[in-house]
Amino acid sequence: MYYLGIDLGSSSIKIALIDSDSGKPFSVVQEPENEMAIHAPKTGWAEQHPEDWWQAVCLGIQKIKKTHNIHEKDIKGIGIAYQMHGLVVLDKEGNPLRNAIIWCDSRAVAIGHEAFEKIGASYCKENLLNSPANFTASKLAWVKKQEPEIYTKVYKFMLPGDYLAFRFTGQMTTTISGLSEGILWNFKKGEVASKVLDHFDFDTKLIPQIVDTIGIQGQLSSKGATESGLVAGTPILYRAGDQPNNALALNILRPGEMAATGGTSGVIYAITDSLSSKESERVNNFAHVNYHIKTDKVIGKLLCINGAGILYRWLRNNLKVNSYEQMNTLASSVPAGCDGLSIIPFGNGAERMLNNQNLGAHILNLDLNRHNQAHICRAALEGIAFSFVYGFNIMKADEIQSKVMRAGNDNLFRSKIFATTLATLIEQKIEIHNTTGAIGAARACIISQKGYAAFSLTTKNDFEKVYIPNEDKEQLKVAYNQWNKELQLINNKIASS
Predict the structure, then answer these.
(1) Alpha helices of 26-108 — where are they, by DSSP H?
(2) For residue 89, how many other CB atoms are within 10 A of its CB?
(3) Is the pTM of this model over 0.85?
(4) Same structural domain for residues 200 and 326?
(5) Which helix (H) or strand (E) holds 202?
(6) CA-CA distance, 42 to 357, in Å (whole number)?
(7) What are 258-303's pLDDT values in tens digits?
């Protein structure tokens, strides 16, 4: 028997198949094989159509069934992870009324800033543990203001994972963890954030039914089963945003544990049981997957770096390099510090950790007589690592104590230069585990059946390697300090313009 895990990213859908007893992974497939398009009708906008996600999920399920000759009746449960903070608006029949406004879209920044001021900074920090900023509630407010003809037709609004669950089950539901992503959860009172609803004049009826993050959230309808190629009645057992889910996949569940992700965007995600939030305008606080209103108020503190792996992908495409491995080889031929070349990687929308400034990416101190392709590759890896260090220091200022940092063996963490640079400057080992978000979502189904202890046992063979800080770190410290100086100059210039 098997569990199926679905990880809805902004570039692709990944689907994992695991043994339902042992948690052993059998396969992970990706659909589409190339990256999904992100539509940008205007600068700073980012949209995808929810139907494209569903079609990719259905194709991926067909692919994984065919590859392993799996019968749909042997799949006993589904877990869903998804790109966070997005907005999907549905009419009463369940049809999307417009493209989804996804996580990296920055059109609602000003709306979020205004809400933070009018609701009150102290209230937001004490109750929401966040500023409304550029998240789901603010995006819905943008639709209300700019597209009133669409807003009047909205029956329910959802996060991307809620939409997938709806297509499977025909039921419109969400979770507390999902509402907290949208800055629609009052942690102090343990209820929907009525003050946010009142500020934006949202009707509470727009919020779907709330179900548990882990547990039976619904069962596949005959329509959902036919379209997906599964069996009607198969339960959805788990749903969470991609970063809480990535942390779960790495068995990050307790205070003092920290996960890192280096994909299109970079993320540092730390667990705490504190409801304090000193850096609520730069660090987000969400209900973690094991959060419970009365018993376990486990909070995930998330710091996002929009401009991370997307820079390395951009370089690969524009330098006409064949692979990331070739880029890493080129980068290894250059000494730390890149002979003075520095890259600021922020070119993927507003950066929350930089107070929602949109800095763009910058190549600095380029010497046309000395620097070449290899220098640019290394400067990119170091620049992205430096942005993680900058974020890590913000997390420390928010009183996060890190006992362990773990990351999956994918994307940027496959680069020794990137991972060792980060480990050296934060002065901490980084454990690499061979798992993925899709595998984590599938394994989460085990929690609903057997509990957290059984889940943790399934992760015991995932450990792969550890990156150790370099003893000689002076050259990297000099390079980071110079990078940070350049960053502040750019940030100050944009803030004052």
Answers:
(1) 50-68
(2) 26
(3) yes
(4) no
(5) none
(6) 17
(7) 999 998 889 999 999 888 778 877 899 999 999 988 777 899 999 9
